[in-house]
Amino acid sequence: EKLCSVEDCSTGTGVYQRHGYIYSSLAGYVLRKNEGEELPVISVVRETEAQLLPDVGAIVTCKVTGINSRFAKVHILYVGSTPLKDRFRGTIRKEDVRESEKDKVDIYKSFRPGDIVLAKVISLGDVQSTYLLTTAENELGVVVAHSEAGAQMIPISWREMQCPQTNAKEFRKVARVQPEYLEA
């Protein structure tokens, strides 16, 4: 089905371009997301996937894929306790790691590639960009990390985890996990 002109929207998931128009490649619901001054992103999702998109305010589980001095890059794996079928990228900026002393945050002491993190969506992404996430609440941050020895680390404070095999300590922005997250 023809949805709109390429001049009116940019393509998201479940759609394709042909001869200056955007067409649906799936039977489902049309979603339009307006992000900033750029064209809105148009996507088509199936009924079962319609509510499975990360939305502002949603708690997401993600895996850290890379870090630099300004931010951590992540792949969003779950919205709440629901696994996502598509891969969504996210970014946790240095200033969104914690609530206080934002200027003293060191990304390298907060996250490492491979860490599993609970975060909150603060801004929607689109096909070209990523979701902006925050861990600036006590309940948000690293929930699973592995040491260099390969063991799952144990949280010992809000900013440190320890390897049970080597007793080595590593800095992280540790989540104070609530019981409902432990049941999943």
Structure description:
With 184 residues, the protein is mainly beta. The chain is built from one helix and 15 strands, in the order βββββββββββββββα. It has one helix at 179-182; strands spanning 2-5, 10-11, 15-18, 21-24, 29-33, 41-45, 59-67, 71-79, 82-93, 116-123, 131-134, 141-144, 154-157, 160-162, 169-171. The strands form four sheets. A five-stranded mixed β-barrel has the order 7-8-9-11-10. The longest helix is centred in the C-terminal third of the chain and has 4 residues, at 179-182. It is elongated and about 60 Å long.
- Total helices: the number is 1
> Strand order of the main beta sheet, please?
7-8-9-11-10
As an assembly, this protein is single chain
Shape: elongated
* DSSP strand tally: 15
Report the sheet-strand fraction.
35-45%
Average predicted local confidence, pLDDT = 84
Q: N- to C-terminal separation? A: 39 Å
Unreliable parts: 180-184
Radius of gyration in whole Å, from Cα? 19 Å
Structural class: mainly beta
Portion of residues within helices? under 10%
Q: Strand count, sense and closure of the main sheet?
A: 5 strands, mixed, barrel
Order of helices and strands: EEEEEEEEEEEEEEEH
List the helices and strands and how they pair.
Layout: E1 2-5, E2 10-11, E3 15-18, E4 21-24, E5 29-33, E6 41-45, E7 59-67, E8 71-79, E9 82-93, E10 116-123, E11 131-134, E12 141-144, E13 154-157, E14 160-162, E15 169-171, H1 179-182
Parallel strand pairs: 2-6, 9-11
Antiparallel strand pairs: 1-4, 3-4, 5-6, 7-8, 7-10, 8-9, 10-11, 10-12, 13-14, 14-15
